[in-house]
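lol ok so funny story. i was supposed to be doing the assay writeup but got distracted and ended up predicting the structure for this chain instead. priorities right. anyway since i did it might as well share w the group, maybe its usefull for someone
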Amino acid sequence: QASLLFNFGSVAGALLCGWLVDRFDGRWPLTIAYAGLIVSLFALSQSNSMGVIVILSGAVGFFLLGANYALYGVAPQYYPTQVRGTGSGASVAVGRVGSIVGPLLAGVLLGSGISASGVVAYLIPVAVVAGVAVFWLSLLRRAN
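and the output, tada:
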């Protein structure tokens, strides 16, 4: 159920975050999405009720993948026209590497005896770094 709600939340988040980025530019919608992700991850790491876990899994999907999918549309703006395709492709590739390494690290942590809530808690600093990076990059001058 948590996995199902995570994926449904990601669809809703992608649609809403994409619309907000189109309407208001990327800085605040993406920064707010990462702040929501941090709060959701913290709450999820502290929960022990199945209903709350399922709802918070949906919230994590909403914020995490909503922001990540919107980043695909924002990333090309930061590359000069001559390398825009290569830069955007490299950005997506780095994200894919994270999609591979993340579950592997989670498996290693679980295998070493850390609880599932502990693994979720370890994601919080990663989300903070991502949120700060998105905000900081939004302050940079965009490529022509």
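The chain has a mean pLDDT of 92. The two ends are 45 Å apart (CA to CA).
back to the writeup now i swear
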